[in-house]
Amino acid sequence: MPELPEVETVRRGLAPVMEGARILRVELRRADLRFPFPDSFVNRLTGWRIAAADRRAKYLLFHLTSGETLIIHLGMTGRFIVEAEELDGKPGAFDHLLTNIPAHDHVVFHIDGPDGVAKVTYNDVRRFGFMDLIETDKLADSTHFAEMGPEPLTNSFSGASLSDALHGRNAPVKQALLDQRVIAGLGNIYVCEALHRAGISPKRKAKSVVGKRAERLAPAIRDILTEAIRAGGSTLKDYAGADGALGYFQHDFKVYDRAGQECGACSQPIKRIVQSGRSTFYCSSCQR
DNA sequence: CGATTAACCTGGAAGC
DNA sequence: TGCTTCCAGGTTAATC
């Protein structure tokens, strides 16, 4: 469940369960997801405590007392399911959330946390997600983050910094905003929504988004993401599980997945086009 | 260098 | 009902 608001929602769901917890045991059910698991993955986790549940862009970061950080990217379909462990045969606190756990449970973390012994399962149908272990001190220089752009919800992100990042780019602004080196954490949904809110055509050359347009776009991005986080992210498919990601921002979409429907602002039909192989939804009347 | 395309993988929905 | 095709919230490797 991928973009920044969904990852932040997952982080907020897992933090109370994971922070301060000790990793008792890890079940690794395959050698790779999108990439192979790092060497000695299970050994480097087992026995350590999770000091904090953090996030950078679409990556979850679990800082361990070992000095390493467990990095988890959810890809397109990664999710977590939390269950209380049934040590003594008594029903667990989360058992009411247990429906049928499907076949794609790849990693199970058994932890001893603030709420007792729990089982945190990583499930990922398409296996586009991945996990890594990096020394916490070297995170910023790691391949995952070295070239990554600014977090849109921090003070370093502004209209000026955005137009700087888009400078000289001939690609459509839609495509540039999906480039994590330009800005971190956006995906297809929130790029479409932010461009609509800012009144900017997704087809406009990225380098032309300067001045007033950039000053509109930066707050549009920030506001959309903030509102989406407040709504618990967007849920496109229903998931049964304690993944903390049953959001409802999808009800607030103005353009995404609304091709043919009326634009709420001008009543013209929303268009769907394909840009670099991905759907773009926009209003050709409101967005120039 | 930037831009475009294919590829990774599974499953649900739509079309015939 | 069954088969085929298309599509999906992401990234990356290989081209041009």
Care to describe what's here?
Helices cover 23% and strands 23% of the residues. The chain is elongated, with a radius of gyration of 20 Å. The protein contains six helices and ten strands. It has two domains: 4-141, MutM-like, N-terminal (N-terminal domain of MutM-like DNA repair proteins, Alpha-Beta Barrel), CATH 3.20.190; 159-282, Helicase, Ruva Protein, domain 3 (Orthogonal Bundle), CATH 1.10.8.50. The two termini are 30 Å apart. A four-stranded antiparallel β-sheet has the order 1-6-7-5, with helices on one face. The protein has a four-stranded antiparallel β-sheet with strand order 2-3-4-8. With 288 residues, it is an alpha+beta fold. The chain binds a DNA duplex (16 and 16 nucleotides) through residues 1-3, 6, 34, 58, 73-77, 104, 125-130, 168-171, 175, 178, 180, 187-190, 233-234, 236-237, 256, 276-279.
Count of separate DSSP helical elements: 6
> What is the CATH topology of the largest domain?
N-terminal domain of MutM-like DNA repair proteins
CATH homologous group name of the largest domain: MutM-like, N-terminal
Radius of gyration: 20 Å
Gap from first CA to last CA: 30 Å
Number of domains: 2
Please identify the top-level CATH class of the largest domain.
Answer: Alpha Beta
Q: Report the count of strand segments.
A: 10
How does the overall form come out from the CA principal axes? Answer: elongated
Q: Spans of 5+ residues with little confidence (pLDDT < 50)?
A: 95-100
